[in-house]
Design brief:
By secondary structure, the protein is mainly alpha-helical. Helix content is 68%, strand content 10%.
């Protein structure tokens, strides 16, 4: 059991840490296929409602229709998404192993709607020959998952989804992050403690939307079937907030990552507390009940101590530094000196 819980914590931390680092590069990317999706305060306020409707819809589907056919349909859907997500995840790593003389041709998948001035891009994905190799490797994992539903294949897809979510989903400011986490805090508590809907869906849903690790691994090996699980939402939602704080750290230009490390440690504390409470009471726990106060409270306390609360809440994801009076003049004088 200790091995299972420890592995879940490690698997949750990896996509948050590396996804946050990659989100910094993603924010500066000019490649259309790597542009982040920005979540606004309106999106954050709507998200718990949309998530609740989706969750309830899945619950009713499982109650009304055959679970076998629903899972078959969902498996095909996540099979395609999983291959793309895993390919995008391993591509930067695999690029280091390709020989320098490896032929690299550029491709672009462009899908538009309309014509002339009304033409609108729906899909604009740029890739090369190396990406195709990564796609082929990911397809092997996809076939393995589709045929066996093995927990290792499930986790490979789950980790890829989590890392891509943290990397590509960006909150536009800290206030939006607080709205999103606060709304999902209520959502998680209600659907876990108020009803059996979330637990039922999590156990019935055969798709890589959760990280799992067998508690009987030492007894049954790779064929173990008694799993501890953690939903991807409990990784991605706090993860995108932690990634935002990393980008805020960088914007301060102090060469420190105080808020990032504080929130990262807060996540470890919150997740550890979740597992402890779950082990004591032998009942599924809404992880966001413990993660949200920790991930928001710890960095806010640090900001209060450092006197940077105003800077934290005024930080905008896509904002550019305001030009101080005289900056342009000084810049022109410096240019003139260099020319002379």
């Amino acid at each position: 059991m200790a091995l299972a819980y420890g592995s879940l914590v490690l698997m949750a931390l990896l996509p948050i840490f590396f996804g946050a680092l990659r989100s910094v590069t993603c924010a500066k990317s000019k490649n259309a296929s790597d542009m982040p999706e920005t979540i606004t305060s309106r999106d954050a306020a709507r998200f718990p409602i949309v998530a609740s409707c989706t969750l309830l819809g899945l619950y009713l589907f499982f109650k009304i229709f055959s679970q076998e056919y629903i899972n078959l349909l969902l498996s095909m859907y996540f099979f395609v998404l999983g291959i793309l997500a895993l390919s995008h995840t391993i591509s930067p790593i695999m690029n280091k192993f390709f020989p320098a003389n490896f032929p690299s041709k550029q491709y672009q998948l462009l899908f538009t709607q309309g014509s002339g001035e009304n033409k609108e891009e729906i899909v604009n994905y740029e890739f090369d020959s190396k990406d195709l190799v990564c796609l082929a490797m990911s397809s092997v994992v996809g076939v393995w998952y589709l045929l066996r539903k093995h927990w290792i294949a499930n986790n490979l897809f789950g980790l890829a989804f989590s890392l891509n979510g943290v990397e590509l989903l960006h909150l536009n400011n800290v206030s939006t992050g607080c709205i999103l986490l606060g709304g999902l805090f209520i959502y998680d508590v209600f659907w876990v403690f108020g009803t059996n809907v979330m637990v039922t869906v999590a156990k019935s849903f055969e798709a890589p939307i959760k990280l799992v690790f067998p508690q009987d691994l030492l007894e049954k090996g790779l064929e173990a079937d008694n799993f501890a699980m953690l939903g991807l939402g409990d990784v991605v939602i706090p993860g995108i907030f932690i990634a935002l704080l990393l980008r805020f750290d960088i914007s301060l230009k102090k060469n420190t990552h105080t808020y990032f490390y504080t929130s990262f440690v807060a996540y470890i504390f919150g997740l550890g507390l979740t597992i402890f409470i779950m082990h004591i009471f032998k009942h599924a726990q809404p992880a966001l009940l413990y993660l949200v106060p920790a991930c928001i409270g710890f960095p806010l306390l640090v900001a209060l101590v450092k006197g940077e609360v105003t800077e934290m809440f005024s930080y905008e994801e896509n904002s550019t530094p305001k030009e101080e009076p005289g900056d342009s003049k000084d810049a022109r004088m410096e240019t003139d000196k260099k020319e002379k």
